[in-house]
Amino acid sequence: MTGTSQVRVENLVVERGGKRVIHDVSFSVTAGKVTTLLGANGAGKSSTVMAMAGVLPRGGSVSLDGAKLDGFAPDRIRRAGLALVPEGHRVLGQLSVEDNILVAALDPSASGRKQGLERAYEIFPELAERRRQSASDLSGGQKQMVAMAQAFVAKPRFMIVDELSLGLAPAVVKRLAEALKIAAAGGIGVLLIEQFANLALDLADQALVLERGRLVFDGSAATLKAQPDILHGAYLAN
Ligand SMILES: Nc1ncnc2c1ncn2[C@@H]1O[C@H](COP(=O)(O)OP(=O)(O)OP(=O)(O)O)[C@@H](O)[C@H]1O
Ligand SMILES: [Mg+2]
């Protein structure tokens, strides 16, 4: 250990529907940096992060600063500091914006809830303006903000975002990307899945590329940008 906080994934194996979809994948996500996980549709990005978050069963090991998270339920993994924003920015439509955020707070005390909301609203002031509004009335981009605020409220050390921009307008995507940059600058380790590779590589420090469930690149985002054939190969493979 160099003293830098890390999530380490080692020899990850995932099976879905009786078929192996992730084959022996190992990588690290470092605090204070954005790491992007790229790959074609079906390459195994969501399976990887769902397995890391304990939502899917897996083989191999996931650890946070050397402490193994193996066998932990999703809630315990979140409490350990690893928060997943799942694909699809789903919210509880019958609840207000604020209640949507609060259901994800880990500290149920009045002061814990207050601090959690402050953290969430600091990153997304536009949600504070809409705190009493029903979440079902929000735009897609605002729903994604709520989904991300549900991660921020838990004061994560690491945050995984599965499909940041899916179906959203460019202006709001810019806002969401900015929030991730702020999070990383504040010390959170971000693992970003994003269908637009250029956007992801502009945001990211580090990059990972999956091809049919295997890791084919692990290095700096700048290196990957300079080697577009790796990305093209991965996107054509699936
Ligand atoms: N619920 C499921 N049951 C069985 N197999 C699944 C299921 N979901 C995904 N798979 C398979 O697992 C593999 C990896 O899929 P995964 O959703 O992890 O890829 P992805 O990279 O996130 O793709 P996308 O870009 O479409 O979100 C694919 O072969 C897919 O068909
Ligand atoms: Mg996916």
Automatic annotation (TrEMBL):
Database matches in PROSITE patterns: ABC_TRANSPORTER_1, ABC_TRANSPORTER_2
InterPro entries referenced in this protein's UniProt entry, alphabetically: AAA+_ATPase, ABC_transporter-like_ATP-bd, ABC_transporter-like_CS, BCAA_Transport_ATP-bd_LivF, P-loop_NTPase
Domain annotation ABC transporter: ranges: 7-237
Keywords: Amino-acid transport, ATP-binding, Nucleotide-binding, Transport
One GO-annotated biological process of the protein: L-amino acid transport
GO MF annotations in UniProt: ATP binding; ATP hydrolysis activity; branched-chain amino acid transmembrane transporter activity
Pfam families reported in the protein's UniProt record: ABC_tran (PF00005)
PANTHER family: HIGH-AFFINITY BRANCHED-CHAIN AMINO ACID TRANSPORT ATP-BINDING PROTEIN LIVF
Similarity annotation: Belongs to the ABC transporter superfamily.
Protein name: Branched-chain amino acid transport system ATP-binding protein
Organism, scientific name: Rhizobium lusitanum
